[in-house]
């Protein structure tokens, strides 16, 4: 099984950077037989969203580092295109296509393509990347519709490192492994738990490469048997982004994190360094923490939106094994620090779309969506009319953490009052009790 691209390659890329084409090898202006196509215009507009204005790949939108899995399909080059002014071009690589996208304007853009053309797509029923032939505009429209580009669901994953792997075959039938840093990123590419391999290769790029750096220039061999000389990390990223795997031409020199330079002569030697660096062959040291007494410790974790969640570990052993030190430990409250007023308030404000359900003896109220504002006000809508209210969270020395709610208008009046926080699963749900013994849950749809 070929895994080098998404193990060693992932190790050495902090960002997947593509350099724009700066020569005439990727775009050749010559007459081509093209026809007007709304689909090619739409396809390039969608592909453009994968890159920033400098041609750099947006990392969160490209968790696999492969255009077929992250975007939906990849053109097979050369690709013959035409501009809206009648000029035709032959594009010979992804670099050239990116260059065209970056230079397009409202007045000059691609609106034609030569049929037939070939594209690589992923077949989830066979776990294989396959080549399909698009013969006309209707088939091109069907390809774009299968990509679900109109579904506006951004890939937002917490930076938790729990790698999962998916085993896929390329168009030649060769097997390679795609490693995601967690299941959330895999889900962004459409994979589920049923797709995950039982034994997962380590993704050494979980937090960047702490083992070594490559000493350029180096030479690589791509999955198309092309031999390329690489002079920088950016060139390596660009050369391998739409490849499935690659290998080095040995020997290569690397600089270890202690400053020593080492010559590598085989793949086995470089893998040995990685295994030694990350202790992959040793048992999971965190497993022994289960034998330690349960004595909860907490740490503050900054989320991608800038908010802070206070996370509890069952004991100090688990926290230390996760990479924290005793200096990182913070105050824990009542064995579940996720219920602290600060964490609860942060979750309510930073996540819209909260609903109320399970109030004893009442109808379901989860059809009403509540927005909590940072100034202590809230809004909700019923039958097209908007209503307001207030909220606060505080630590009561005798009763614990209390949420006080006040709702104007109909339907949610029964939720007005003080509620004691009894359990939290932030940022998804908060379980509450009233002084009268009623139960209530604040929740929002989330993974």
List the helices and strands and how they pair.
Blueprint: H1 4-11, E1 27-28, E2 35-36, H2 38-48, H3 67-70, E3 73-75, E4 79-83, E5 88-91, H4 94-103, E6 110-113, E7 117-123, E8 128-134, H5 137-145, E9 164-169, E10 175-180, H6 183-188, E11 212-214, E12 218-222, E13 227-230, H7 233-240, E14 246-248, E15 252-256, E16 261-264, H8 267-278, E17 297-302, E18 308-313, H9 316-321, E19 329-330, H10 341-350, E20 355-357, E21 370-372, E22 377-382, E23 385-396, E24 400-407, E25 417-425, E26 429-434, E27 439-443
Antiparallel strand pairs: 1-5, 2-6, 3-7, 4-5, 4-6, 7-8, 9-10, 11-15, 12-13, 12-14, 15-16, 17-18, 17-19, 20-27, 21-22, 22-23, 23-24, 24-25, 25-26, 26-27
Walk me through this protein's architecture:
This protein has 447 residues and is α+β, with helices and mostly antiparallel strands. The protein is 19% helix and 30% strand. It has ten helices and 27 strands. The strands form seven sheets. It has an eight-stranded antiparallel beta sheet. Strands 1-5-4-6-2 form a five-stranded antiparallel beta sheet, with helices on one face. A three-stranded antiparallel beta sheet has the order 3-7-8. Strand 26 and strand 27 form a beta hairpin. The radius of gyration is 27 Å and the shape is globular. The N terminus is likely disordered.
Nutshell version of this structure?
This protein has 447 residues and is α+β, with helices and mostly antiparallel strands. 19% of the residues lie in helices and 30% in strands.
């Amino acid at each position: 099984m070929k895994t080098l691209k998404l193990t060693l390659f992932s190790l050495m890329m902090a960002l997947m950077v593509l350099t724009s084409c700066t020569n005439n090898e990727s775009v050749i202006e010559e007459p081509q037989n093209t026809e007007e196509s709304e689909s090619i215009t739409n396809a390039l507009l969608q592909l453009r969203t994968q890159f920033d204005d400098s041609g750099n790949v947006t990392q969160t939108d490209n968790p696999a580092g492969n255009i077929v899995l992250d975007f939906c399909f990849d053109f097979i080059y050369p690709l013959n295109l035409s501009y809206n002014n009648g000029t035709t071009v032959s594009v010979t690589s992804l670099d050239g296509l990116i260059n065209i996208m970056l230079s397009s304007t409202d007045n000059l853009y691609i609106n034609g393509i030569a049929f037939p053309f070939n594209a690589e797509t992923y077949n989830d029923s066979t776990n294989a990347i396959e080549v399909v032939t698009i013969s006309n505009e209707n088939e091109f429209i069907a390809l774009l519709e299968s990509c679900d580009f109109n579904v506006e669901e951004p890939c937002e994953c917490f930076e938790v490192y729990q790698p999962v792997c998916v085993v896929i075959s390329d168009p030649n039938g060769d097997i390679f492994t795609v490693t995601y840093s967690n299941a959330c990123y895999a889900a962004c590419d459409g994979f589920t738990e049923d797709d995950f391999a039982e034994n997962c290769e380590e993704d050494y790029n979980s937090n960047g490469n702490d083992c070594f750096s490559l000493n350029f220039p180096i030479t690589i061999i791509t999955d198309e048997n092309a031999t390329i000389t690489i002079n920088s990390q950016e060139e390596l990223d660009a050369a391998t982004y739409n490849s499935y795997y690659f290998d080095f031409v040995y020997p290569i020199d690397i600089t270890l994190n202690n400053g020593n330079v080492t010559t590598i002569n085989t793949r086995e030697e470089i893998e040995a360094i990685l295994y030694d660096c990350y202790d992959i062959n040793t048992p999971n040291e965190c497993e022994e923490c289960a034998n330690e007494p349960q004595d909860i410790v907490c740490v503050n974790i900054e989320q991608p939106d800038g908010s802070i969640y206070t996370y509890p570990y069952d004991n100090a052993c688990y926290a230390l094994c996760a990479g924290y030190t005793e200096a990182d430990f913070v105050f824990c409250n009542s064995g579940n620090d996720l219920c602290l007023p600060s964490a609860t308030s942060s979750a309510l404000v930073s996540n819209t779309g909260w609903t109320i359900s399970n109030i004893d003896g009442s109808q379901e109220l989860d059809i009403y969506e509540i927005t909590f504002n940072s100034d202590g006000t809230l809004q909700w809508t019923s039958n097209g009319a908007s209503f307001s209210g207030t909220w606060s969270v505080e630590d009561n020395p005798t009763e614990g953490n209390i949420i006080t709610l006040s709702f104007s208008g109909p339907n949610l009046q029964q939720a007005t009052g003080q509620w004691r926080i009894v359990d939290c699963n932030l940022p998804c749900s908060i379980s509450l009790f009233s002084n009268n013994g009623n139960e209530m849950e604040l929740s929002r749809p989330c993974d």
